[in-house]
Request: fold
Amino acid sequence: MFEGVLPPNINMFATTAASADESSYACYYDDVRQTYLGDVYSVNWMEDSDAENLKSETLETQFEITKNETNTSHVQQYGDMTISKLSVSGFQGEKDTEPKHVPEVPFDAVPSRDVPLHILQKKLHKLNSNSLEARELQKSLFKLNRNRVYLDDKVNEIVRRSVKTDEQVTYAKTQRKSLQNLDCYDTVARYFSKECFSLSQNNYAMSKMYIFVNLCEMGVKPKAMKKAMDRVCTHPSIYGIY
Reply:
């Protein structure tokens, strides 16, 4: 989100749960609510806020603690690093209560983008496999995986139509290039979301956007990618591919 995009001179400071080429991780699955209650980075940040004196702790110190505690992804910081020298209380407020230390419990961490998949699997694990509810969940799990394959196939076809060689196809699908050509990517991402798979309605599609970063950094023109999308994305609007 911020790598190569957020400049260091506009009075903004940001931290992220993961680096640009990896997923964050959800944690604390709740059997009653049947969902994950947090992610590893956010939980570590909130627990640090409970444990520390926010008047004396700086954003930099908080970042380093959270980074060291988060072992599922690589926590990053971007922007104006002078802001990181300020106290946390200036942003989160001053607390009157004494620091609190929460008990350690298993994170049970899973990649954030696979949360819908893991929730279905956990629900299935607790059921009799021959029950009606289990069969319905198995159907939902099959649909989820099949829809992902459908989106994968569409993206692969867009790549094949956008470049000239098999080597370029492989490169586009396997590399994790840093985004430099923001104008190209913004144009292509918006077109993909409008004509192929809405990014706000198909969360799984977000996991494929690095491919379009690679294509832009390879010098493939937006016009070529848009033309490929016009040929490939002839399906009606699709929503709910998670």
